Amino acid sequence: MRYPASEKLEIIRIVEQSHLPAKRTLDQLGIARRTFYRWYDRYLEGGPEALEDRPSAPSRVWNRIPAEIHDQIIELALEATALSPRELAVRFTDEQRYFVSESTVYRLLKAHDLITSPAYVVIKAADAFHTKTTRPNEMWQTDFTYFKIIGWGWMYLSTVLDDFSRYIIAWKLCTNMRAEDVTDTLDLALVASGCDSATVLHKPRLLSDNGPSYIAGELAEYIEANKMSHVRGAPMHPQTQGKIERWHQTLKNRILLENYFLPGDLEAQIEAFVEHYNHQRYHESLNNVTPADAYFGRAPAIIKQRERIKRQTIEYRRLQHRKLAA
């Protein structure tokens, strides 16, 4: 079976970021180890572009990136060390109005020994509910996750995430996981989204698991009173809430780098990361816009602008090549 370059890259990222041994991960994916390591060697040597199944061809000299652009990319990479080559390429294009591809950034960083191995864990969870949403506030995912505060005990984070945009609408740090904590978080979400207005005809549908707080009668009464609806994932199948599971893991990868001794310290770190996640973190599944861009309807204009920048950049490089060749 032939895999397109995009699928090869996704498989490489899954194996790199899996908490399981590579052999076990590959067995679950149905990929032969010999095949995977052939892809991986090509990827490490040439970046995502090297995964394409095509014969070798002469380099397109006209499309070579100028040295001053190389320097600017390296400068950005040194300033924003937490960004991946994909995120650096998108940010550079947005900020400098000059298109560079992920593969170009990867090769440049690799040449300067600035590529690091993944230092985080990503769970494998379904990216989408069985019926995909088409607009913000159509469906919200909600769940709890937990954090240990040294000398204090456990705290539980209740979050409401918009399924369409992955935007964190509301969150609350709780001492328990009660139905009351769920409804308090939903109150915050309804106000923040404007869905508490009587003029909103289509209220969000809530997606949760089957935890005690989500099957409680108190929550059912709240849902009915607010003219919402509620669906729950299949028991023992957390992948149904894949997006919020991924959010939890992304959050913990950052938050758990430090120890916390007071609830206020943890709350401040969560607040800062939610702000970063919503407004600064480019999301690959959202065509490399932020959750806030997708939630507030800015994504189409941003994507259109990037396509325009890409065309203008390529035309500029072609023109510069012709001038030099004349």
Automatic annotation (TrEMBL):
Domain Integrase catalytic: 132-299
GO molecular function: nucleic acid binding
Domain of life: Bacteria
SUPFAM superfamilies named in the record: Homeodomain-like (SSF46689), Ribonuclease H-like (SSF53098)
InterPro entries: Homeodomain-like_sf, Integrase_cat-core, RNaseH-like_sf, RNaseH_sf, Transpos_IS3, Transposase_IS3/IS150/IS904, WH-like_DNA-bd_sf
Stretches that traverse the bilayer: none
PROSITE patterns per record: INTEGRASE
Pfam families per the UniProt record, alphabetical: HTH_32, rve
BP-aspect Gene Ontology terms: DNA integration
Protein name per Swiss-Prot or TrEMBL: Chromosome (Plasmid) partitioning protein ParB / Stage 0 sporulation protein J
Lineage per the UniProt record: Bacteria, Pseudomonadati, Pseudomonadota, Alphaproteobacteria, Sphingomonadales
